[in-house]
Every structure is written in C-alpha cells, then in structure tokens.
C-alpha cells in the first residue's frame, strides 16, 4: 500500500471514530488515495479489534478509549480538524456535541442526520464548510442520485427505493440503525433527491455465498420525456462511478406510462405521469471489506470524497491549493 502521508504536500489532519468494518475501510481508502487528508488516529472501544490492529500496523495512532481517549490527548486533538464518525446513530449524537465544543468539523457516516445531507454526485459543494455533514445511508448514497437525475428533468411525485444487502455485510451498527436507515433515507429522497414523497425499504439477504448490494428505484414523474430522463440517469451514474467504480446499472431504465389511467398508491393516492424503474448494483473495491459489501464501500468512498473537499476548503483558507 502506498502511504500518501509521506508525500511532501500539505494535508489536513483527520481522525476516524469507529474501528469496525466501515471505519477501517475508510482509513485504508484515505491512506491509499487521499491527497488532502492525513489520518492521525483511529478510535475504537475494543482493544482487540482487527481495525485497531490494522491501524497500528500501518503506523496510525490508536485509542481504545473511544472519543474520550481522543479528547484527553490534547496534543493529538490539536492536529486534527476533520473527524469521521463511523459508529452508530445514538453514539453520534453524543460525539457531535463533544466535538462541536472543540470546533472540529464532523463527517457523519451514521443515520443520525444532525447535519445537512450530502451525496457527492448531487450536492458536494453546498456544505463543505458545515460543522456537521451527514452521509445519509448506504441505500441513500446508491439511490438518491437516481431520483435527483429524474427530478432535474421533471417533477417527481413519489420515489421509492429498495436496497438488498448481504446479511454478512450488516454489522451490529447497521442492525441497530434499521429504523433510522429507513427514515433518514426516505427524507434524503425528498430533501436531496427532489421527490415530493419518498419511501425506503432495506432487506438483509441471508444468501450464501453472499450477494452484492442491489437496489431498485421507482420514481413517478410528470409528463413522458423518457429520453431526457434516461440521459440524465446515465449521466449521474457516470458521476457516481468516478468515486465508486463498482456502481452500475443492471439494465436500461424501464418506463411505464400512467398518463391515461393514474396509478393509485395504497398510501399516497393517485399518481399520474410516468413510472421509471432503475435497477442498480454496487460491487465493493475490496480494500478491506469483501467485494460483496458494496453497501459499506459506497459509504466509505462517498465519505472520503466529501472529506477531500472539506480538507481542500480548510487548506484554501490558509492560501494552499491542492
């Protein structure tokens, strides 16, 4: 692995809270690819975790005392400007309050949704100076770009996403956050994706061997400009692939007209226009996680992309451009 921290270029110090699968994979991505971030510490609560052992082997300082261990290390804390939180929604609420007191910028990989929602392919440049930004959920990162692609062409009355992920890729944090996952993702379909009404469903697939992340997106939009919607979807997929290479369409978008006879949704009433169905899959890059864990990989890839921009903003304030 190439450790970019050794290169003679200015970087912004960062820390990662959470030494599980997501935090460890994010650490490796930053070490391998980042031009603006320098990982100063990986923070966990289990001294025997593989993540902390991996960090130690890569020369990254660690603590198993949680965020309190970082806060107690004043010299290390002074070196850190950006902190990624890869724990749980409930834990993040405590972390956010403590880190705000220290003036640290936080990138939240949990569904806590304290700060504004960010999807790199949609609104990357809108919140790079926010004190706390939220990466929504893996399903949100995968499907909100598609809904946004439709909504920038026509009014989206209703959008629904179904994410199927391998049960083996769903750790304790994911399982604890199921309710927050569906609520936060649905709000993201609306506030970032542009749908008037959003709904989110997650499925933990027990298949063995494990299957990669698959997503189905339904969007009902006004009118029937299928060509423009298809072009917009293909364009946004290419944008996501720039930071998540394993993100791809399983088939061409499918269109069904309800212009003459509206479709009655059991929860939201009549929907008139055109329904587009988009089938996606996300294969992981296998940096630390297996390839089937695309649901985790898209979160860490998106968080790294956001972290890079935030770091560049910090550097630009010092007159340094990377």
Outline of this structure?
With 322 residues, the protein is α/β, with parallel strands linked by helices. The protein contains 11 helices and 12 strands. It folds into 2 domains: 4-135 and 298-317, 3-Layer(aba) Sandwich (Rossmann fold); 138-292, 2-Layer Sandwich (Dihydrodipicolinate Reductase, domain 2).
Can you describe what's shown?
This protein is of the alpha/beta class. It has 2 domains: 4-135 and 298-317, NAD(P)-binding Rossmann-like Domain (Rossmann fold, 3-Layer(aba) Sandwich), CATH 3.40.50; 138-292, Dihydrodipicolinate Reductase, domain 2 (2-Layer Sandwich). The chain is built from 11 helices and 12 strands. The strands form 2 sheets. A 6-stranded parallel beta sheet has the order 3-2-1-4-5-6, sandwiched between helices. Strands 7, 8, 9, 10, 11 and 12 form a 6-stranded mixed beta sheet that branches. α7 packs antiparallel against α10 and α7 packs across α11 (294-317). The protein is globular. The model is unreliable at 1-6 (pLDDT under 50).
Short key terms for the protein model shown above:
11 helices; six-stranded parallel sheet; 322 residues; Dihydrodipicolinate Reductase, domain 2; alpha/beta; disordered N terminus; six-stranded mixed sheet; Rossmann fold; 26% strand
């Amino acid at each position: 692995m190439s450790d970019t921290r050794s290169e003679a270029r200015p970087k912004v110090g960062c820390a990662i809270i959470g030494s599980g699968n997501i935090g460890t994979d994010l650490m490796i991505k930053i070490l391998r690819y980042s031009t603006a971030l320098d990982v100063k510490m990986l923070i966990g609560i289990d001294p025997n975790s593989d993540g902390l052992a991996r960090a130690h082997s890569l020369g990254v300082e660690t603590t198993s005392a949680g965020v309190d261990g970082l806060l107690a290390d004043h010299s290390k804390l002074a070196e850190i400007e950006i902190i990624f939180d890869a724990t749980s929604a409930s834990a993040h609420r405590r972390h956010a309050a403590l880190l705000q007191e220290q003036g640290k910028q936080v990138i939240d990989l949990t569904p806590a949704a304290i700060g504004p929602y960010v999807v790199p392919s949609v609104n990357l440049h809108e919140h790079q100076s926010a004190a706390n930004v939220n990466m929504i959920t893996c399903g949100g990162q995968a499907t909100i770009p598609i809904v946004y692609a439709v909504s920038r062409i026509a009014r989206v009355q209703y959008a629904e996403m179904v994410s199927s992920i391998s049960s083996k890729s769903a750790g304790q944090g994911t399982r604890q956050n199921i309710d927050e996952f569906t609520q936060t993702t649905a709000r993201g379909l609306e506030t970032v994706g542009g749908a008037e009404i959003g709904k989110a469903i997650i499925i933990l697939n027990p298949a063995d061997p494990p299957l990669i992340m698959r997503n189905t997106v339904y969007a009902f939009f006004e009118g029937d400009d299928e060509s423009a919607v298809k072009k917009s979807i293909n364009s946004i997929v290419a944008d996501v692939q720039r930071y998540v290479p394993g993100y791809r369409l399983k088939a061409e978008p499918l269109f069904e007209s309800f212009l003459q006879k509206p479709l009655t949704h059991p929860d939201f009433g009549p929907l008139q226009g055109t329904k587009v169905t988009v089938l996606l899959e996300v294969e992981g890059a296998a940096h630390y996680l297996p390839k089937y864990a695309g649901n985790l990989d898209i979160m860490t890839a998106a968080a790294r992309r956001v972290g890079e921009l935030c770091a560049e903003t910090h550097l630009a304030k010092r007159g340094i451009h990377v």
